[in-house]
């Protein structure tokens, strides 16, 4: 049974930083998604098992996705946080061959495994 467990969420002021973690097994690709109230779940950042990473335009330059391949932990370092970053953040994992495509890696369609989410709230 695959289990993905997120941690690291919280409340920070605008301009602050947070690091999210997700424990689980290694997959072909993994990603962070977020879902704000009343909005669709959107891909934030994704990483393939060869280390290739890509980001949504809204977070480029402020967010870094990385993984510890020994401890099987996925990270999302978020800096210069904005109130519009407020959302529930989810870790996701996939074995799909579509992981080879940057655009597909940010699409929830290819991900079969999801964590329960961790809340990030950014106050202005």
N- to C-terminal distance: 40 Å
Low-confidence stretches: none
Order of helices and strands: EEEEEEEEEHEE
Gyration radius (Cα, Å) is 13 Å
Structural classification? mainly beta
Query: Which strand-content bin applies to the residues?
Result: over 45%
SS field, number of helical segments: 1
Biggest β-sheet description: 7 strands, mixed
Instruction: Please give the share of residues in helix.
Output: under 10%
Report the mean per-residue pLDDT as an integer. Answer: 96
What does the overall shape look like?
globular
Q: Strand tally, please?
A: 11
Question: Which helices and strands appear, and what pairs or packs with what?
Answer:
Elements: E1 5-7, E2 10-13, E3 18-23, E4 29-35, E5 42-48, E6 53-55, E7 63-68, E8 73-78, E9 87-94, H1 102-105, E10 113-114, E11 118-123
Parallel strand pairs: 2-11
Antiparallel strand pairs: 1-3, 3-8, 4-5, 4-9, 5-6, 7-8, 9-10, 9-11
Describe this structure in words.
This protein has 124 residues and is mostly beta strands. It contains 1 helix and 11 strands. It has one helix spanning 102-105; strands spanning 5-7, 10-13, 18-23, 29-35, 42-48, 53-55, 63-68, 73-78, 87-94, 113-114, 118-123. The strands form 2 sheets. Strands 2, 4, 5, 6, 9, 10 and 11 form a 7-stranded mixed sheet that branches. The chain has a 4-stranded antiparallel sheet with strand order 1-3-8-7, with no helix packed on it. Strand 7 and strand 8 form a beta hairpin.
């Amino acid at each position: 049974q695959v289990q993905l467990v997120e941690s690291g969420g919280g409340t920070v002021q605008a301009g602050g930083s947070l690091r999210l973690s997700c424990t689980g097994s290694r997959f072909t690709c993994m990603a962070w998604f977020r879902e704000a109230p009343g909005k669709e779940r959107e891909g934030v950042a994704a990483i393939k098992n060869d280390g290739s990473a890509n980001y949504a335009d809204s977070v480029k330059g402020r967010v870094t996705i990385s993984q510890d391949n020994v401890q099987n932990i996925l990270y999302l370092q978020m800096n210069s946080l904005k109130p519009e970053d407020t959302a529930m953040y989810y870790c996701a994992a996939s074995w799909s061959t579509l992981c080879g495509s940057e655009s597909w890696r940010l699409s929830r369609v290819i991900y079969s495994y999801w964590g329960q989410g961790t809340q990030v709230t950014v106050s202005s």
